[in-house]
């Protein structure tokens, strides 16, 4: 770690430029954390230490963690929120789309967890939260690559907890339901109405509500290896 050690806890939010990631970075900032957030050139909210990082570029995440260490000297929480979605039927799915989704959503998460374990292991404490999706259980026609990549996070966490736990590190998955983000803005109105109808709360989540869950889960000191749906009840009663 660097010579300077922040007196405040430090959180790194990977994928912090918009939507759930931006709301999460802002929530940690509000709670008194020093927050670093990665982006792919679009920048981050004022008050957050921005790090330009494409998680699919070899070595990019390693460099991001190194920058956090050099600037703040500690790392308490890592949130992996980077994600992309593509839409196509399985029989027409292009290799490049499959590769893009897997590299961002799953392989990037692997790299982030590896780096987090290295840095947090030195301190003997830390919390990692990966952002999955309710669709990893329910499935979405035309999104086999997306749902498979998100389901892979569940397996990653269930194995990684055994390596993380003895080092004092907790690792969990949050699986949001439909949330008001740019990704959801692409959904047709009729499909959106159908999603609302599947929720006992009869509405879609705000990014801040998901961020609230992520923050609280990250602080629970006896929770690890858990897959936590934050869906407004969608998919839980079927």
From TrEMBL:
Residues 9-177 form the Ketoreductase domain. One of its GO terms (molecular function) is oxidoreductase activity, acting on the CH-OH group of donors, NAD or NADP as acceptor. One of its GO terms (biological process) is fatty acid biosynthetic process. InterPro entries: KR_dom (IPR057326), NAD(P)-bd_dom_sf (IPR036291), Sc_DH/Rdtase_CS (IPR020904), SDR_fam (IPR002347). Coiled coil: none annotated. It comes from the Bacteria. SUPFAM superfamilies: NAD(P)-binding Rossmann-fold domains. Keywords: Oxidoreductase, Plasmid. Belongs to the short-chain dehydrogenases/reductases (SDR) family. This is Short-chain dehydrogenase/reductase. It comes from Arthrobacter sp. Chr15. The lineage of its organism: Bacteria, Bacillati, Actinomycetota, Actinomycetes, Micrococcales.
């Amino acid at each position: 770690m660097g010579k300077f050690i922040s007196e405040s806890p430090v959180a790194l939010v990977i994928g912090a430029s918009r939507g759930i990631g931006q709301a999460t970075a802002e929530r940690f900032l509000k709670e008194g954390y020093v927050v670093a957030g990665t982006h792919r050139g679009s920048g981050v909210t004022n008050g957050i230490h921005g790090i330009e990082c494409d998680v699919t570029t070899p070595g990019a995440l390693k460099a991001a963690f190194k920058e956090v260490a050099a600037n703040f000297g500690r790392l308490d929480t890592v949130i992996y929120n980077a994600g992309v979605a593509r839409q196509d039927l399985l029989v027409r799915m292009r290799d490049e789309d499959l590769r893009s989704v897997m590299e961002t959503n799953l392989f990037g998460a692997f790299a982030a967890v590896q780096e987090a374990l290295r840095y947090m292991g030195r301190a003997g404490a830390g919390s990692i939260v990966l952002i999955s999706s309710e669709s990893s259980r329910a499935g979405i026609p035309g999104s086999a690559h997306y749902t498979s990549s998100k389901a892979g996070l569940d397996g990653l966490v269930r194995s990684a907890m055994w390596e993380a736990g003895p080092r004092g590190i907790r690792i969990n998955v949050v699986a949001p339901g439909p949330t008001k983000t740019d990704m959801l803005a692409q959904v047709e109105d009729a499909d959106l109405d159908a999603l609302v109808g599947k929720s006992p709360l009869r509405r879609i989540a705000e990014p801040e509500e998901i961020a609230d869950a992520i923050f609280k889960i990250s602080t629970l000191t006896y929770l690890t290896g858990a897959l936590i749906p934050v869906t407004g009840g969608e998919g839980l009663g079927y």
